[in-house]
Each structure stands twice: as structure tokens, then as C-alpha cells.
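Justification of computing resources. Each target in the renewal requires a structure prediction run like the one illustrated here; the chain below, 455 residues long, is used simply to show the kind of job we budget for.
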Amino acid sequence: MLEVVRQLEAQVDRAFGAVSSGVHMIDAAQASSEQAATDASAQALIREVWEVVDTSYMDARKSGFDHEKWSLLRDAALSRTYRDQGSVHRVVREMLAQGVADPYCRFIPPAEFASMKKYDVTGVGLNLGTAEEYTKKTGRALPQSAAAADPNGGVWVVGLSKGSEADRAGMEQGDQLLRVADLDLSRTSPFQAATLIAGPDDSSTSSAVNLTVRKADGRRLDLTVQRPARYLASPVTSSLQERGGGREVGTIRLASFNARALRDVSAALEQLQQRGATEIVLDLRDNRGGLVSEGLEVARLFLSDQVPIVLTQSKAMAADPPRAGAAAATQLPLTVLVNEHTASASEILAGALKDNCRGVLVGKRTYGKGLIQSVYELSDSSGLVITVGKYLTPRGTDIDRFGIAPDFGAQPAPGQAAAVLDACRLDAGQPQQQRQQQQLVLELAAANSASSSRR
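Resulting C-alpha cells:
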């Protein structure tokens, strides 16, 4: 009897062992499958980061970016096994730290990137650009049907935030924007179109805007996009002060370049002129920048005659620089206040006004932040910020690191400022005068030659 019981116990033990072994095999297979999926996802992200940097990054500060080293870092990262999304993100950061000696290039995890995407100009998740900007930033040709209809102009969807209002409405990268509400966009800049889409800045309730787009296959669609409620504080304060001798000095303090900068500077400028201002002081001290598009538009308030506002240097083919319009909003004498915290978009504005002899700069040398960054959304909803170019002033001064030197350390007398601007205009006019003189010499030589042949 005892022997029978022992045999039964042995059979039970073997059965349990077989079941346990089977469970372990299933667990191992499942773990192996999950590990393979994790590694595949990690490798896709690593290749994506590598390609973006290898294709688009510009070593603007000549820090020694090495494509071969960057490829070796990629290969080393691909050979590793990853526990979870966090572990691959750490390796991506290590790749950037070891391969890209640029303090402005960084990896942004999904949660942080999601919060960043809230701050687009349109408010609905769209990054708009010209046809040239679309092809340059995406590396893609224009959709064939749209290119045939409008090969050089138009407003294009360069980028789109996943899960945004525009995304939910059915918009896609590569769409051409044709109308906002009832307004045709054929003569509208991407910045102006973004402002129309965004609607009022002081909106306590959400509202809808109707958009007409042309899809890649040529279809025209009418889409409705919901605008979020939003409030933006004004970056502008202004005042008018009498300084004797009939001088009425209007001061416009611009603290940052948010989506209200152009509108509020324009309103302040108009109000000061109506109140009798005889000169303008534009205070950019401690303005660390913001939306470059707003900086360009503010420059157009003071500049005229289609002069260039800023030059860009990048890996892509050089484009015609953004230019002023035919006429400025004011011709009043201009002084621009700057200091060591005047940076980025503020430096672009200050450089444009200085190099085009529109106003004198007073204060301290500016910060020196002239790099152009692009933000890329990656496949796992994380983000990558890399340097793709740098800004130069209209006369070719490299803004980055060195900044812009002021004309005066302290407020000059009106006669001193006028003398600096006269010298600036004379210097700016010399190349043109030389070309005109050379052309005249050629024309006279041709005329003399023709006269001699007739004799």
C-alpha cells in the first residue's frame, strides 16, 4: 500500500513538473516576444534620430561634428538591448552628448514635448510655411497637383502636431491652405495665415474656424477646426515724455516676441504719433526673443524699400532673405536700446535696424544667440531640437556668440546719432555708386567704340 502511495506521489510530481515547465516556456516565449518588440521600437527611434541629425544638423559653431563618429554611435546604440522606453531615451541623450557638441540640441521626452506643442502660433497645431520652406524643412517635393497649380507661392502645412485640433479635423503635412473663413490666401504670408487661424488673442471661449485646403491628390476640402480658448499678455508698454527743445520722445518697451508683439507695437506706434511724438525709442533690453516671425514683422514697421531684414546660412540652398515692404509705418528718428540680455529675435530686429541705417543702437553688446533651431516630432511622440542654420545681419555680421555692438554706450545727442546714420548711409551707398560708375564707364566705352567704327 505504501509503495502504491509513493508511485502516485511520483506521478503527481512529474505532472506538476511538466505543467511548471510548460508555464516557464510560455513565460519565456512571451518575454522574448516583448523584448523583441521593445528592441525593434528602440532601434527605429535610434535610426530616426541618427537620420535627422545626419541630414539636417548644421555645425554652425564649427565644434567638429564628425559624420563617421555619429554613425559609430548609432551602431553602438543599435547593438544594445533595451528594458523599456526610458532606457532607449537615455541612450539617445548619450548619443547626442557624445556626437553633437551643441548646447541647443536636445532630446525631449513625450510628456514634455506634448506640453511644448501647445505653444504654436496658430493655436491648433499647425506649422505653416512657404512652398520653399516646405521642401527645405521636410526634404520632400511639393505634391504634383498642387505644384502645378501654384509652384512658387501659397501657404503650406510644413508640420502638424499629432492629436491637435488640426489633426483631428483631417489636415495633413503637405496640405496647401487656400482659404481661412472667407479670406483667399493667394497673397497672404504663412505668418498672416497663422494669425487668421489663431483668431483673437483674448478669447475666453473656444470657437470654430473654416479652412479650405488642397490635398496631395488635388482634392479641395472644407474643414472645420476648433480654436481653443486662450489669453496672451501684452509684451508692450509705451509712454510719451517731453525732453525740451520741442522733443517729444515716445518710448515703446517690447519685453518679448509673443503672438501679440506686432499688433501691440503697431498700436503703440500709431498712438504715440497721434499724440505728437517727434522721435521713437524702442527698448529691447532684457528681451530674450520669442517668435522670429513676429520679430520680422516688427522690423517691417520701421523699414521700407524692400531692404533685407536678416540673412540665413544653412545646409539647404540659400533663399532670398525676408524683406521689408515698400513703406514703413513711421519715418520718425529711432533709437534702439539693447543690453547683454537682448537675444535671438531681438538681435535680428536690432541688427536689421542698424545695418539698414534706420536707427542707432544704444547700451551694451547683445547676447549673441543667432542659431536657428528646428523641432522634429519623432515616431514615439518625443521631440528632437537641432541646429539647422544661423542668422546674419543684412551686412553679414554673424550674430551668434559675438552679438551686435551698439553705436553708443549711453544716450547720444541728436546730432551725434544723425552723424552715425549719415556715415552708415554713405557706407551702404558706396558699392552701389561704384557699380553705377562702372556701368557708366562701360556704356561710355561702348559708345566711343561705336563712334570710332563709324568714323
